[in-house]
Give the backbone structure.
Amino acid sequence: MKTQIQNGRVIDPKHGLDKVQDVYIAEGRIVGLGTAPDGFRPDRVVDAKGLVVMPGLVDLAARLREPGFEHKATLQSEMHAAVAGGVTSLACPPDTDPPLDEPGLVEMLKHRARVLNLAPVYPLGALTSKLEGERLTEMAEVRDAGWVAFSQAERPVVDTEVLWRALQYAATFDFAVWLRPQDAFLGKAGVAHDGEVATRLGLPGIPSFAETIALATLLQLARATGTRLHLCRLSTAEGVEMVRKAKEEGLKVSCDVGAHHLHLSEMDLGYFDTHCNVMPPFRSLRDRDALREGVREGVIDAVCSDHTPLDEDVKQMPFGESEPGATGLELLLPLTLKWAQESKLPLVKALARVTCDPARILGIDAGHLGLNAVADVCVFDPEGWFKVSPETLKSQGKNTPFLGYELPGRVRYTFVAGHLCYEAA
Amino acid sequence: MKMRNPQLNENGELQHLLTIEGLPREVLTHILDTASSFVGVTEREVKKVPLLRGKSVFNLFFENSTRTRTTFEIAAKRLSADVINLNINTSSTNKGETLLDTVDNLTAMHADMFVVRHAQSGAAHLIAQHVPKHVHVINAGDGRHAHPTQGLLDAYTIRHYKKDFTALSVAIVGDVLHSRVARSLIHALTTLGTPDLRVIGPQTLLPTGVEKLGVRVFHDMNAGLRDVDVVVMLRLQNERMRGPLLPSAQEYFKYYGLTPEKLALAKPDAIVMHPGPMNRGVEIDSAVADGEQAVILPQVTFGIAVRMAVMSILAGN
């Protein structure tokens, strides 16, 4: 199948490209930009006049809920949501049931994803057995099973001796370790940012230093061990500063932020809106602004969806009993565009945070439109605003604090390896 | 996105009473004035008025509280309502029924009003957003968040003894962190124009940023009580007396318990309040609790009139 995408505004952040031209796809790869290769005869021509043609998005955190949580969402429903959101590569954290701590489970997940023939899934392996923070998983033994990195998902390693050894062991084989900086004790009973709003609403708080204390530990251990460390879901202004300094020092660290954290703060909890129960919690406006600036400057490398589909029952509860998390795959591009517009940032720069930058962190050749690259392409309408509603979301989870928001960037076509996986109705 | 004040109906009238925060001064004053008119009723020989005749009030208590439940029950009965008491700790939620399922079932039994107590902040809001339009919800305490009828009865008591809110110094002492009573009273008094509102306690018992609620923070009780007109003592829960927040009840009493000596720092005519139940010798000395300046039992009596006022106003809107 040969495809020609005509007259679109082609934006490829990795190569600094922003130009109206045609894209030629054959055998799953980009075979021409601007000029067709000799003898190219398209089987399909896509008219992209007025649309933006960009690399498919690379999402560093999407919970696909299999195995174990099929009542919340299935691989199938969430993969459809991914391509409807223009996401063509996904990393998924190991907090499934059972956790992804052995090759068989990872192999099964990858196989199930392959059968669906939508977007490739890159599972993160558990750093410790059952995520219990006690025993290392067989990292080296299973590298061929397709684990891209090792993570603890939402479970901090409590024992710092184990953490140190785990990072040392990972560094031995040059494996990356992805961890969310979160102290295991501070704010353990907390459900909201420990600040003005939590005080007013009487919600147990999670202080900012629950993040920065854990971050300090992780950075010290990264310095000591030389491990490639990826810090997940920063939420505080102080955390951004610590990562900035660590990078200046030359530590091998990278980090990401959830797209919803670029827009919302503790203020959005309103009257106990459980859709604003997310982990880490929405913090102060000052923190939110620091996160936005951190992404703009590149201190924060990537914006991810932190996709967590939940059924509505677990949000129809008192705030402190509701489950944290928001569905996000289909809002990653719109929320990134909204941030770019508000920050007056050119798209070619802004979109790097959801394409080539996360691809670099994952260590995969994706997220760009270079010649001969795998043809993962997202075509969206920059003028296509839409109202977020349960009906517009393909994800089985309708849980998002953005219900009712008008957001820009309706995806029109998504190609994965040259195959048209999604076309807007 | 649901940012409309969930307590008010489309005419801006009180549909539910969930928190004092955000209510206009006129609404609070109206409740206090209405309560005044009910104080007479409770002192008559026939203590009943027919304002809620034929209405069903469900006391929905997910957290045990004999005292608060009883005052609501008496208030509803004096308004001639039918009262059904449900203590739910032990029944359906343990069988897996969700909070809203329970509420739906009781609504189907034609409840007109729910009086809700729940250990989770925001539970009453959740129920209020869920029930049909004709049903009213009164928050009888949700987690650490709010206990609006207690805040109102405290305000009523202060007005009864001190007449004018706009020239008062009020000190709230103790475990503000976990206290819905403190939060509701702070909102009531800031709305009613009290110029000097203080909270006194160790840092471990004061929530982050409490000064943003419009209070001055004191850690030294002697400094905090100086020249105040009203002292409100908060209850210290047993499980918090020893642990990461406090070393012991004895040490707490030494630094934050109200003794006659400490009370002497307040104005000579200062009143002492307590939401009950009291821990004598932990937050308050018996000599103070039983002394002339204590108005703790009148608080209980006024509480019934205030709850009658809230119920009758809601039923009329």
